[in-house]
Amino acid sequence: MFGLLGLDLDGTLLNDQKKICKKNVENLQKAKERGVKIVLCSGRSADGMQRELKQLGLKEKGQYAVALNGGVIFETTGTFLKKNLMKAESIKELILLGRSMLEEVNIQLYTGDRVYVERWNETTDFYEEATGSHPQLVENLMDYAEKAVKMVFFSRGSIDKSLKKIRTLKDRVVCQIPAGTQSVISAPYLLEFFDEKVDKGRAIQELAEYLGMNAGQIICVGDQENDLPMLRYAGIGAVMNNGAPEVKAEADYITEIDNNEGGVAEVVERFILAE
Length: 275
Description:
By secondary structure, the chain is an alpha/beta fold. The chain has helices at residues 22-33, 50-55, 88-99, 122-131, 164-173, 200-210, 228-233, 245-248, 263-273, and strands at residues 4-7, 37-41, 64-67, 72-75, 80-83, 105-110, 115-117, 136-137, 150-155, 181-187, 190-195, 218-222, 236-239, 253-254.
């Protein structure tokens, strides 16, 4: 019997308007009533996940979530179980790299529960509207290097479905990033950097062990490159119909419908409610 359902947010649980469709809400509530732990697993900060946690009734003691691509594990009432900081020197190098590319990207620095920016532009507006989180505008990101869990280069320009621009950006900077740092694409416009030992799969495994569960009791659902570690770890790794081709290639199950039609509800119906 499955006891934990790990869900990516953007492109998976959320539709393209950054909302949770009614079908997903209903089936997740049924799964929760059966005792399944619904664990949101996002690249967002803890602050940027609050809207969805509240909507799904997950702001309770004994409920957990994974933020910043596995950099943070927290109880949804506010207690942090784990926080994996990056090396301050690595963050400073990334800040300098991002500053050299300001026509192409905006830099976002993430601590466990907050997001900081030096410049407010169209990317910040988009992030604020999409997540309900409120980035803090600061004079110098270097002042927060000691607290950073993750850094993001947010591609500037139109927000669309094409991965070509962000993939080109990743190819350009991959040999310039600090040692011990990994880079992953988490959305068609986001290139993320965090410690090489951090990923969603390790976080889900650590949480599962904390809860006394094993991989066979876990389903994870995602759509992008940063979801691969948790999809590989889980007993069932389900990928959305709208997922990236390289992610779908490793799926145990691919949904028939996409994130706009309730693909998560399909997974819950097939593997949890049908038990």
